[in-house]
C-alpha cells in the first residue's frame, strides 16, 4: 500500500533537493565527509579539459548495496565493503531518491557494538577528500532518527542528534572533509549515542593534492570540515549532481539560501567564455565555478551568512573572476569584511585581468558567534563573487600508539572479543568517545599519543587465549580477564613492568607461570581456578611480602613455597627439570665410574698382583686373566653405551656428548 502511495507522490519531488541543501546547525554538521572519484565524467561543455590529473585513487562505496553499479554520471559504485559489522537496509521511499547508492544504507545495531567503522585499506599516505551521504527516511519504521557521532582517522567530525531536521531526515545530506591519511588506511567510525543504530548510505574517498587548501601553513594535523561550499548565481553541481567536472569530487551548493539580503537586489551573471587560471594544481578549482557570478543591481554591500559552530577556527576561501568584459582596472573595487573585520581590498581586474580566476583565503580564529559573515563592501562599482568555501579547522585528535594498536588488534583476535563489544577502529581515539568497551586509555607522558591503561573483560564469555603481543602494551596497569573460558598458556609477554593488578582467575589456563611474570610493581595477582602447574617463580611471592595479594589456589599442579606443595625435586613443567637432568646425568656417570673402578680393582689389579708377576707360562693363571679382561671389556662395551644412551635420551637430548665412539 505504502509503495503505491510513493509512486503517486514521486513526481512532485525535485531531484536533488535533499542533498546538500542545508548547513550544519549547531551540534550538527550536515556535511559528511566522503570521497569522490577524481576522474568522473568528461563534461560535454567543459572548456578546459584538465590535463592529466595525478591522483587516481578513489572509492565510491554504496553502503548497504549488494551489487556494483554505474550511475548516470558514469561513477562506478562498489557494492558495500570495508565495514566492520552492521546490516543493510533500504530507505522507506526509494523512488524519491535519484541514485542507487542513496537508496540503500548500512546501519549498526547495538548488537554490533557501540563503535563501528568503514576501514578502507591499502591507501598511500596523503591527503584525501572524504564524503558521506547520510539518510534516515524512516528505513526502520520507528520514525526516530538516530543520535550518533562520526570520526575520520580517529578525530571526531560530525555529530547527529535526534530529532533531525525533517528535510534532512527524509532527504538525507552530504557531508565532506579533507584529511591526511598517514597509516595506510582511512577509517570512518560511527559511535552510537543512545541505542538507535547509526546509519550511512554512501561513502566516497578520493586522493587529492597534498598541498591543496594551503596545507603547508594549515598543517597536516588539521581536518578541514566543510561548513559551506557555494557556487554563486547557479544551481548546485558537482559529481553526482551534474555532469560538471570537479577533480576532487567537491559538491558546489547553490548560494541562494545563504545571501543575507533580499534576493531582489542580486544579479546573477554567467559567461560561456573560458576562464584562465582554472583547473590548476594544487586546488584544481573547476572552470565552471568562475563562469558564473553574483553581483548587485543596487548599491550597498553583498553579504553571505554561513551557519557555523562557535569556538572553532575557520578557513574561508573566496573565488572571484571578472566576467563583465566592460570592466577594467579600478572600475570594480571592494573591501572584504569577515565578521565585520576588514580583511582585504579587491580589484580583480587589476590583480589578474578579465576572465581569469582569482582566489583569496583567510583564517578566522576562535569564532565566537554561530554565524560567519562575509561582506563585500563596494569602494568603486558593485562587488562581484563567484564562489565561497568555509571549512572548520578541526585539529586531529591524539591517536593510540601504533604498537599498542597492533597489540589490541592481536588481543581482539586471540581473545575472540565478541562483536557486541565494538572493538573497531582506533582502540582509544577519539578522546571524546569511550575507548573500546572494557578498555581504558590515557594520554602518554608527553601527551603526544594515547596508551592503553586498563583492560577489564571479566565475565565476557571469552573463549580464546592471551596473545603474546600483549607485551606491547607497555603502559598496561591493570588486566582483568577473570571468569572467562580462556585456554592456552600464560604468555611470557605478560611481564611488563607497568603491571600492578592481574586477575586471570577462573579460566582454563594451562602450563606454568612464566619466570618474568614478577614485575616489582605487582600488587594483585589472581591466578586461582586455572589449570596451571609447575614451579611458581619465587619472585612472585614478593607480591604478598610487599603487602599485595596473591591467589594461586585451585590449579592443576602448582608447586613451590608454602602453602603450595613442595616441588618434586627434579620435576618441573611436567617433565624433568634441568637440575633433575644434571643430577641423573651425574649420578649415572658416578655409577658407571664406580662399576668400572670396581671391576678394575677386583679383576685387573688383582689379576696383575696375583698373576702378572707369576709365571707367564701358568696356563691356569693366563686363563683366569683372560677371563677377567673379557669381563672388563664386556663391562665397558655394555655399560658405556647404556650410560651414553641414558645421557642422550633423558639428560641432554639436544646436546651431543663431548666424545663419540
Ligand atoms: C565489484 O567490483 C569490485 C572491483 O571492481 C570487485 O572486486 C567485486 O567483486 C565486485 N562485486 C560484485 C558484487 O560484483
Ligand atoms: C559513460 O561512459 C560511456 C562509455 O564509457 C559513454 O559512452 C557515455 O557517454 C558516458 N556517459 C556520460 C554521462 O559521461
Ligand atoms: C580595508 O583594508 C584594506 C587593506 O587591507 C585597506 O586598503 C582599506 O582602506 C580598508 N578599508 C576600509 C574601509 O578601512
Ligand atoms: C576562544 O574564545 C573564547 C571566548 O569567546 C575564550 O573563552 C577561549 O579561551 C578562546 N579560546 C582560544 C583557544 O583562544
Ligand atoms: C613522546 O614520548 C614518546 C615515548 O614515550 C616518544 O617516542 C615521542 O617522540 C615523544 N614525543 C614528543 C613530541 O616529545
Ligand atoms: C575482575 O572482574 C570480575 C568480573 O567482572 C570481578 O568480579 C572481579 O572483582 C574483578 N577483579 C578485580 C581484581 O577487580
Ligand atoms: C617451564 O615453563 C616455562 C613457561 O612455559 C618456561 O619459561 C620454562 O623455561 C620452563 N622450564 C623448563 C625447565 O622447561
From TrEMBL:
Gene3D superfamilies: Galactose-binding lectin, Ribonuclease Inhibitor. It comes from the Eukaryota. This is Malectin-like domain-containing protein. Residues 61-392 form the Malectin-like domain. SUPFAM superfamilies: L domain-like (SSF52058). The chain crosses the membrane at residues 582-603, 634-655. It is a single-pass membrane protein. It is found in: Membrane. Residues 1-46 form the signal peptide. Keywords: Membrane, Signal, Transmembrane, Transmembrane helix. Pfam families: LRR_1, Malectin_like. GO terms for cellular component: membrane. Coiled coil: none annotated. The keyword Lipid biosynthesis does not apply.
Amino acid at each position: 500500500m505504502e509503495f503505491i502511495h510513493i509512486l503517486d507522490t514521486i513526481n512532485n519531488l525535485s531531484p536533488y533537493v535533499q542533498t546538500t541543501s542545508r548547513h550544519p546547525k549547531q551540534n550538527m554538521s550536515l556535511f559528511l565527509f566522503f570521497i569522490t572519484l577524481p576522474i568522473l565524467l568528461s563534461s560535454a561543455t567543459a572548456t578546459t579539459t584538465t590535463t592529466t590529473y595525478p591522483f587516481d585513487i578513489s572509492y565510491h562505496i554504496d553502503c548497504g548495496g549488494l551489487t556494483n553499479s554505474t550511475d548516470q554520471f558514469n561513477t562506478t559504485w562498489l557494492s558495500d565493503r570495508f565495514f566492520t559489522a552492521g546490516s543493510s537496509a533500504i530507505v522507506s521511499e526509494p523512488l524519491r531518491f535519484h541514485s542507487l547508492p542513496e537508496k540503500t544504507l548500512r546501519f549498526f545495531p547495538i548488537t554490533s557494538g557501540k563503535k563501528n567503522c568503514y576501514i578502507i585499506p591499502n591507501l598511500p599516505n596523503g591527503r584525501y577528500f572524504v564524503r558521506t551521504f547520510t539518510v534516515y527516511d524512516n528505513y526502520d519504521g520507528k520514525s526516530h532518527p538516530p543520535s550518533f557521532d562520526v570520526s575520520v582517522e580517529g578525530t571526531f567530525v560530525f555529530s547527529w542528534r535526534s530529532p533531525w531536521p525533517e528535510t534532512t531526515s527524509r532527504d538525507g545530506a552530504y557531508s565532506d572533509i579533507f584529511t591526511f591519511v598517514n597509516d595506510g588506511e582511512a577509517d570512518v567510525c560511527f559511535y552510537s549515542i543512545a541505542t538507535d543504530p547509526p546509519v550511512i548510505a554512501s561513502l566516497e574517498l578520493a586522493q587529492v593534492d597534498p598541498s591543496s587548501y594551503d596545507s603547508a601553513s594549515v598543517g597536516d594535523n588539521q581536518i578541514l570540515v566543510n561548513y559551506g561550499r557555494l557556487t554563486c548565481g547557479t544551481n548546485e553541481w558537482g559529481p553526482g549532481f551534474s555532469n560538471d567536472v570537479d577533480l576532487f569530487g567537491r559538491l558546489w551548493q547553490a548560494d541562494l539560501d545563504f545571501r543575507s539580503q533580499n534576493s531582489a537586489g542580486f544579479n546573477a551573471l554567467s559567461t560561456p567564455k573560458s576562464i584562465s587560471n582554472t583547473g590548476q594544481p594544487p586546488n584544481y578549482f573547476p572552470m565552471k565555478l568562475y563562469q558564473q557570478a553574483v553581483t548587485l543591481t543596487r548599491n550597498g554591500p553583498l553579504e553571505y551568512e554561513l551557519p557555523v559552530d562557535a569556538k572553532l577556527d575557520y578557513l574561508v576561501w573566496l573565488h572571484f573572476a571578472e566576467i563583465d568584459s566592460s570592466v577594467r582596472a579600478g572600475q570594480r573595487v571592494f573591501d572584504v569584511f569577515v565578521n565585520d573585520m576588514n580583511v582585504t581590498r579587491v580589484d580583480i581586474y587589476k590583480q589578474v585581468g578579465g576572465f581569469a580566476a582569482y582566489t583569496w583565503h583567510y583564517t578566522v580564529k576562535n569564532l565566537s558567534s554561530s554565524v560567519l559573515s562575509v561582506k563585500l563592501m563596494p569602494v568603486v562599482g558593485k562587488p562581484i563573487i563567484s564562489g565561497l568555501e568555509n571549512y572548520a579547522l578541526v585539529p586531529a585528535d591524539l591517536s593510540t600508539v601504533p604498537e599498542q594498536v597492533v597489540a589490541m588488534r592481536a588481543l581482539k583476535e586471540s581473545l575472540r572479543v565478541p562483536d557486541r563489544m565494538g572493538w573497531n577502529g582506533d582502540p582509544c581515539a577519539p578522546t571524546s568517545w569511550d575507548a573500546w568497551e572494557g578498555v581504558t586509555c590515557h594520554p602518554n607522558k608527553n601527551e603526544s599519543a594515547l596508551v592503553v591503561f586498563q583492560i577489564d573483560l571479566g565475565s565476557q564469555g571469552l573463549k580464546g587465549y592471551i596473545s603474546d603481543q600483549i607485551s606491547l602494551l607497555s603502559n598496561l596497569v591493570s588486566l582483568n580477564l577473570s571468569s572467562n573460558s580462556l585456554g592456552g598458556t600464560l604468555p611470557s609477554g605478560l611481564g611488563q613492568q607497568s603491571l600492578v593488578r592481574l586477575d586471570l582467575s577462573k579460566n582454563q589456563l594451562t602450563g606454568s607461570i612464566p619466570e618474568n611474570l614478577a614485575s616489582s610493581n605487582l600488587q594483585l595477582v589472581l591466578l586461582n581456578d586455572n589449570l596451571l602447574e609447575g614451579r611458581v617463580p619465587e619472585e612472585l611471592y614478593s607480591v604478598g611480602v610487599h603487602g599485595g595479594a596473591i591467589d594461586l589456589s585451585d590449579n592443576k599442579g602448582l608447586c613451590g613455597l608454602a602453602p603450595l606443595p613442595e616441588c618434586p625435586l627434579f620435576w618441573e613443567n611436567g617433565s624433568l627439570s634441568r637440575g633433575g637432568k644434571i643430577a641423573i646425568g651425574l649420578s649415572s656417570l658416578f655409577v658407571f665410574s664406580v662399576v668400572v673402578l670396581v671391576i678394575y680393582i677386583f679383576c685387573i689389579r688383582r689379576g696383575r698382583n696375583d698373576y702378572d708377576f707369576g709365571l707367564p707360562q701358568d696356563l691356569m693363571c693366563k686363563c683366569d686373566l683372560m677371563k677377567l679382561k673379557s669381563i672388563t671389556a664386556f663391562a665397558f662395551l655394555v655399560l658405556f653405551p647404556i650410560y651414553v644412551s641414558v645421557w642422550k635420551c633423558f639428560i641432554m637430548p639436544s646436546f651431543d656428548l663431548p666424545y663419540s665412539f
